[in-house]
Task: structure prediction
Amino acid sequence: MNQIHNPVPLEWKSALMLTILTVAGLAMFSWPLLIPVRVEDGMVSTSPFIFIAILPLLVFLVLAQISEKGMDAKALAILGVLSAINAALRPLGAGTGGIETVFFLLILAGRVFGPGFGFVLGCTSLFASALLTAGVGPWMPFQMLASAWIGMGAGLLPNSIFGRMIRGKWEILMLVIYGIFTAYFFGMIMNLWFWPYLIGPSMVGTTELAYIPGGSLIDNLRRFLVFSLITSTAVWDTGRAITNSVLLVLVGLPVLAAFRRTVRRAAFNPEITFEVTP
Amino acid sequence: MALRLLTPRSLHPGAWWAWAIGCAVVASRTTNPAILGLLISVVFLTVILRRGSAPWAMAFRLYVYLACFIVTIRILLRIVFSAQGPTVLFHLPTLTLPGILDSVRLFGPVSAEALLGAGISALQLAAMVVAIGAANALANPKRLLAAVPGALYEWGTVVVIALSIFPQLAESFGRVRRARQLRAETGKGAHLIKNVAMPVLSDGLDRSLVLAAAMDSRGYGRSMAVSVFSRRLTSVLLVVSSLALCVGAYGLLDTGFTPLWMGVPMVVFGLVAGLVGLRLSGRRVVRSRYRPDTMLAAEWLVLGSGVAACVGILILGIFQPMVAFPPVSPLGWPDVSILAIGTIVVLLLPAFMSPPAETPSTRVVENPHKSVGFLGADTQNGGFGLHHGENWGENPSISVTQHHNAMVLRGFSPLGVNSGEICVRGNDDSL
Result:
């Protein structure tokens, strides 16, 4: 991708830190499956709460590295405007049958503006909307990271296949498939890290949906999938997948065109050169 | 002195967050329903007495709904998915799910112990949620942004732009709607996307480029020259500290298999490296602050009460474990000790000993469209330093309001970004 078309370029150091954050973040989201914690008096140990402190720190460190060279003011302004639009879209669907209006714009922006921009937009739009709706809490870093991944993933989707540019309806088809995948991914991963606390730990054999501390990976995974299927996947995540698809089909093409026009007009990070005129 | 302590003003947001986190820690370190109930009522009382009338203060009820939802859902889930125990309250018919889920049994006998256990752990979570809601209601989120470290300056700017532009979207929507009415467009359904949503989006994107030009010309987003060595050191510190934090987080988990050095020492090392890295990285940003948030006596009191309550509940857990963690079975009333009550009373202090929030009794100087004048910080005379009379033209986007003993002049640039808020306080100490 041309430098001029990339508002938030990722150097190799930023890419390295993003990789560390992604691996560590996935482990922190899925700790109930990976890490055997102790049980005290029938309560799951609260030591995984340490993630609530560590995760935002890691996100901050990565953001500091990305902006280490200073940022183009145009990138900041566009990020600000899109975060505001996303924050305005978020309450539109909140609480009505899993209609989630945040992700389609995130996917489209990540697709056009690149993975770095998608990552930052995921963080800033969730943060801005948390401030606007007074929704700051321990869940916020997890939401920020999950939606940052969604924006980054959209930026990493292939631009061309077999030498042919993916544009028009094929691009929309690819984004719809990605949107459906992220809808279920987001739902699952947001359930997973909190699952042991929401439903309470299992006394052996009583609750079929509960987390067994120190249980085998397969067993806990099966329990989690049953829990998730019953409580959220069937309704919330499917609603989110449908919302994503419908919005992407309806407004995908014009929004992509508007974003691409902005990219051309903006010319990010221009190379400044001085020449001696003869 | 007492009068000064209780003069209405908004506290440093960090103080209220520290207090709320203290409440959450207390809730997480006890399973005594009496202590939890007292804690929740203390949080409610504090919010009712000390919140302002800002929009974020009104969001507290959402947290209360969430807390009620958590309690209900956990008790219901416990009833649905087997609530066996010694003292059976009533019987429900047992159901077995068909197909691959045949190992799942639903309903059956419901015991008091199971309900109590589910209710208490839900009450713990509910208390934490309510405490976080209290912090959101009491602390000003915009002042929280002022505490963003220099290394994250750009991203703080992004959030400030987002928050300031947010009301602009409604205005943009209104203009598009008026244009449609003028053109007598009546399209509905999918037409609305083409004729309303897209113009608002394009408008926002175009404006962002104009805003960027304005920011560039004022030197936003520009950074100081920093030596190559310093930049390399910063990057190394950031990478090392994130690795150390990951290892340390794993070490802190209560697994019983990790060596001691992987826990606290690793986290502390990661924290120090990260903070030094952030500080180094922040050196390239030069900012001036004309309205710093300061920690005064009231802030320390609020913060201290949170810390003291944390210490109190830890001591309670060590010396009176039967009070902090009373057994669910056999059934009985939970014990409460002086120490437990004291811990809760400490958390109650900010409700009475901290200044109340500023009420929006802001008085707009008559006809702000015209009478806005020259602004000079005329603090030597103890005056407000705002001279009326001089005309700044017919700019309706500048307003002068009076907050108790301070004049506030707000200016909005045509871009809709809050281009400045200048607050001049009087010198008079008696106020």
Strands of chain B lie at 88-91, 95-96, 105-106, 109-111, 363-364, 398-403, 406-412, 418-425. Chain B touches chain A through 98 residues (CB under 8 Å). Residues 362-431 of chain B have pLDDT under 50 and may be disordered. Residues 2-146+294-353 of chain B form one domain.
